[in-house]
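Person: I have long wanted to understand how a fold can be written as tokens. Underneath my words sits a plain record pairing an amino acid chain with its backbone structure tokens. Those tokens are not coordinates but codes from a learned vocabulary of shapes. I should like you to check that the lines agree and flag anything odd. The protein I mean follows directly.
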Amino acid sequence: MYKKLVRDKIPDIIKANGETPITRILDSEEYKLELEKKLKEEYKEVLEASGESRREELADMIEVME
């Protein structure tokens, strides 16, 4: 079980693997808090990465900001 934001297609991937995702839509305040947590997570991954991997992590960070 993961209690975190996921990209839109993740539930579809879970379904394709024969599993049942449990999701919910957050209210505005919950969403803001979860976006902040996700941004911190992505930032940590950027700092730990290098080379092409760092570019991919930066792209993930930009996606969260958008």
Observations:
- The chain has a mean pLDDT of 90.
- The first helix runs from residue 10 to 16.
- Helices lie at 10-16, 28-48, 51-65.
- The two ends are 26 Å apart (CA to CA).
